[in-house]
Write a structure and sequence with these properties.
- The protein folds into two domains: about 110 residues, Rossmann fold (3-Layer(aba) Sandwich), CATH 3.40.50.10860; about 120 residues, 3-Layer(aba) Sandwich (Rossmann fold).
- It has eight helices and ten strands.
- The strands form three sheets. Strands 5-4-6-7-10 form a five-stranded parallel β-sheet, sandwiched between helices.
- Helix 1 packs parallel to helix 8, helix 2 crosses helix 8 and helix 5 crosses helix 8.
- Bound molecules: NADP nicotinamide-adenine-dinucleotide phosphate.
- NADP nicotinamide-adenine-dinucleotide phosphate binds next to helix 8.
């Protein structure tokens, strides 16, 4: 039977805990928050708990939503320069007055554990988690037809690149893709990854029963979470929501902090 995402994450966290306990010092992640968003509070609590689980020090720094872009950049620079900090991330959403691209690019690439900087030393967390899990369950990437729906900067595009790097043949579907093209691509896909942000975006379209379905979407409705793929599709594997890709993303963040730690200690 295929290893579940939950089992994979538990196994990997246990390995990380052992690795971290053998390091000379404790890896340190700084999480910057400049919003009063309840969703962000929940995500940050989860990240801090994950860090505690494996032995990473997490520092949560909050700024008022009135902070200016210039002042936030100064704070980022302070942590970029702080030798006690290995990883740095800025939780989204940001106040409307602050440009996300400017903030993303202000974090020094060697500490960019979200992997959003164009020159980041680390891979973006969601694509990394998906590819690592697929590798762990033995997905034979080479030559397989992977369809990625969604082309965002944080998920769709880096995931396509990661699959291409593993020799998949990658098709990307986005909001301008013609319906007939989409249906044709889906029918020949060995792997379908959906990151659109619409409940059950993929529902009854014809797919191969041997296809693997990776559901990245997180859609909240009446206090419940729904994925981008209708549950119960006839496929070789369909990742659940909740308890699926979200866990892989969280795991990747921990791995990236350890990678950032190694980078800093190799170069010092
Ligand atoms: P996003 O920036 O809003 O991008 C959505 C993408 O979907 C866009 O590329 C858009 O195409 C495409 N799209 C919209 N309507 C479409 C249609 N009718 N047909 C085909 N493509 C369509 O969203 P995101 O940040 O990538 O996030 C996507 C979902 O993943 C959200 O639910 C988010 O909450 C979730 N997410 C989950 C995790 C996790 O860890 N599980 C991590 C990140 C994000 P255009 O570019 O043409 O507009």
């Amino acid at each position: 039977m295929t290893m579940t995402i939950k089992a994979f994450v538990e196994q990997e966290k246990s390995k990380l805990k052992t690795t971290i306990s053998s390091l000379k010092s404790t890896p340190h992640l700084v999480i910057i928050q400049a919003n009063e968003n309840e969703g962000s509070n929940i995500y940050i609590r989860g990240k801090i708990q994950d860090c505690q689980d494996v032995g990473i020090k997490a520092t949560h720094v909050r700024y008022p939503i009135t902070i200016t872009e210039a002042d936030l950049l100064k704070e980022i620079q302070r942590y970029n320069d702080d030798p006690s900090v290995d990883g740095l991330l800025v939780q989204v959403p940001l106040p409307d007055t602050i440009r996300p691209s400017v903030i993303r690019e202000a974090i020094v690439p060697s500490k960019d554990v979200d992997g959003f900087h164009p020159l980041s030393s680390m891979m973006a967390c969601t694509p990394k988690g998906i590819v690592d899990y697929l590798a762990a369950i033995g997905f034979p990437f080479k030559g397989k037809h992977a369809v990625v729906i969604g082309r965002s900067f944080i998920v769709g595009k880096p995931l396509s690149t990661a699959l291409l790097d593993r020799d998949c043949t990658v098709s990307m579907i986005h909001s301008k893709t013609e319906e007939a093209t989409k249906l044709a691509l889906l029918q020949s896909a060995d792997l379908i990854c959906v990151a659109v942000g619409q409940k059950w975006f993929l529902s009854d379209e014809k797919i191969k029963p041997s296809a693997i379905l990776v559901d990245i979407g997180i859609n909240r409705e009446d206090g419940l979470l729904f994925g981008d793929i209708k549950p119960g599709r006839h496929a070789a594997l369909q990742t659940p929501v909740p308890g699926g890709v979200g866990l892989l993303t969280r795991l990747s963040l921990l791995k990236n902090v350890v990678e950032a730690y190694h980078l800093r200690h190799q170069s010092s």
